[in-house]
Amino acid sequence: MSNFIPYVAPQLSPEEMLDRASQFHDLMAQRRSLRMFSDRPVAKEVIEHIILTAGTAPSGAHKQPWTFCAVNSSDIKRQIREAAEKEEYENYHGRMSDRWLHDLEPFGTDHHKPFLETAPWLIAVFRRNYELLNGEKVNNYYVNESVGIATGFLLAAIHNAGLVALTHTPSPMNFLTQALGRPANEKPFLLVPVGHPADGATVPHLKRKSLAEIGVFV
Predict the structure, then answer these.
(1) Tens digit of pLDDT for each residue in 173-202?
(2) Is 47 a member of any domain?
(3) Does the CA dihedral 102-103-104-105 come out positive or negative?
(4) Across the chain, where does the E strand assignment appear?
(5) In the chain, what percentage of residues exceed pLDDT 70?
(6) What CATH number is associated with residue 145?
(7) Structure pTM?
(8) Distance spanning both ends of the chain, measured CA to CA
(9) How far apart (Å, rounded) are the C-alpha atoms in residues 106 and 203?
(10) From CA 53, how far away is CA 156, in angstroms rounded?
(11) Alpha-carbon span 70 to 192, nearest angstrom
């Protein structure tokens, strides 16, 4: 029996392809990382669909080596903030190089992370280094690449839903494993606050690289 099924591709004219590609670029060009969140609620169903979209990403041998933990609990968000700020304090006061701190200056960041409590949802992304089946380790493949791609899908889905997010990487992130009760085969990859922007929210005035700077056609 074949494990393959027919693939039905969307039938688009060259004009429709260009239009859709251009519109999607226009949408994603508005995406910004935000640190000023409103506490306005976001329905669980919206977060569910965002995670389902992330789960459509390709992965090595279709192992889908990811877990997305969506946190809405105020108590758990407080625990995560306290642990993250402890690690970030160490980063800003000794772990980071002077050059790193200099590069962060335009963003006005420090070890204080109030958004980890203010945002209605935190999505903790875990990479599954292996699976445990009947007590036996089963390999996953290209785990970091797969989870990185899925996270890109996650961020696009968040923006498409009209929400804002931040890719937060307090390092080390082992406290997430404990706070969320995750098993030994999962390791923290990223922490993503998700919600609405606060009233009067601002972002750094940045310029993205041009096509000539990021694209090569041969």
Answers:
(1) 999 999 999 999 999 999 999 999 999 999
(2) yes
(3) positive
(4) 66-71, 121-128, 130-133, 136-139, 164-165, 186-195
(5) 99
(6) 3.40.109.10
(7) 0.93
(8) 42
(9) 10
(10) 9
(11) 9
